[in-house]
Design a protein that fits this description.
379 residues, 2 domains, Rossmann fold, five-stranded parallel beta sheet, disordered N terminus, 15 strands, alpha/beta
Length: 379
């Protein structure tokens, strides 16, 4: 699938004009409006719900401490229903109607790619918690992320596969998701350049339920492992159907697997599979365990990486507002860009010149029905 490219010189002006955004001022009140776009319902709802929970926790903490600039933070959340096209619509609504000072979200790269040019055109800083496709921050200097990107994540999983002696890998890609397409691209590049062989490549589309034709073709290549770069919904079904067909090699993937639903649906079929992620709630550092304790107390379960990234994205925004002593677009943009060595829940975060986070990744595995920390890989 061709990843979309945006032209911003004229498009930015057109979007701003259509929304009446040029030169708009934030409304004066006793609150600072922060927008959030999240998939609260739909196929990737666990991503949006977790990210929102982490974001809301950060908002509650800052408000309890007195707020910012003498005002309380008001988080205005819009549900994009996990639908392509909807994220752009609600982002425009937040900017034009709610007069937000900054925009948080989305998790899914494809939906962040819709939002990014809109935020850029409006001069509203946007921070994605977890969109790893490199194209997201290429929208312009108002667009940031607090996660690592797919070139790193794909390389991490390629290195891991090779270190395990798995030199023959099949690939299964969701061609409807920019995230999956990009992750496959970078895994394949590193793997083949370092002695690995791709035994076969198959594809599917989000919300597909039957993968047996693709898996039958993959089985014929006799791979050591299968790199399944999509999201948890389909990956769990892929694992179940692979085992039914007698394919017992490990599945490998990225942070798109991060959901309780992966094991709830995949069950024993997920045993011995591995994926890269941003965070492990098994990390015993005091700051992480304090976050885990607070989150579990409020939500009745341990936080996943999306919750931790949502929390970090909001906290980095709030730190930038403090340093800028302003919520005006240019000042806030510059303050976010200056983020360096921020001690986040998902690691020490420094934003580079491309507004991407430089930070480590963790490798997790499924063992005895639980997600277990395996190792940490640094950039």
């Amino acid at each position: 699938m061709k990843i979309r490219h945006f032209v911003f010189s004229s498009a930015a002006v057109s979007i701003a004009a259509a929304l009446g955004l040029s030169g708009c001022k934030k409304s004066d009140s006793n609150v600072i409006n922060i927008g959030e776009v999240a998939a609260m319902t739909g196929t990737t709802a666990t991503f949006g719900q977790s990210s929102h929970n982490g974001t809301q926790m950060a908002v509650d903490e800052i408000n309890a401490a007195g707020g910012l600039l003498g005002k309380q933070i008001k988080l205005i959340t819009e549900d994009d229903q996990s639908k392509q096209g909807e994220a752009g619509i609600v982002a425009k609504k937040l900017i034009s109607r709610s007069k937000i000072s900054a925009l948080l979200g989305e998790v899914a790269s494809g939906r962040s790619l819709e939002m990014a040019p809109i935020a850029q055109a409006a001069g509203v800083p946007m921070i994605s918690p977890a969109s790893t496709n490199p194209k997201v921050t290429e929208a312009g200097d108002y667009v940031f992320r607090v996660c690592f990107i797919d070139p790193f994540q794909g390389t991490v999983m390629s290195k891991f596969a090779l270190s395990k002696g798995w030199k023959k890998v099949a690939i299964l890609t969701d061609t409807k998701q920019d995230y999956s397409v990009g992750l496959t691209e970078f895994f394949k590049k590193h793997f083949t350049e370092n002695g690995g062989t791709i035994t076969g490549e198959q594809s599917y589309a989000s919300q597909d339920k039957d993968f047996k034709a693709q898996l039958t073709a993959i089985k014929a290549g006799n791979p050591d492992a299968i790199f399944a770069s999509g999201y948890y919904n389909e990956v769990a079904l892929i694992a179940v159907q692979a085992r039914e067909l007698g394919i017992n090699v490990p599945l490998l993937g990225g942070d798109g697997w991060d959901s309780d639903s992966l094991i709830e649906v995949g069950g024993k079929a997920m045993e011995g599979c591995y994926y890269s992620n941003h965070f492990s709630n098994e990390d015993q550092s005091p700051a992480i365990q304090e976050f885990v304790k607070k989150y579990e107390s409020k939500h009745g379960r341990k936080p996943d990486a999306m919750a931790a990234l949502g929390y970090d994205s909001a906290k980095i925004l709030f730190e930038a507002i403090k340093r800028a002593n302003s919520v005006e677009g240019p000042a806030l943009r510059d303050a976010i860009a200056a983020t360096k060595d921020y001690a986040g829940i998902t690691g020490s975060i420094t934003l580079d010149a491309q507004r991407n986070a430089t930070k480590p990744a963790v490798i997790l595995t499924i063992k005895d029905g639980k997600v277990v920390y395996t190792e940490t890989i640094t950039p």
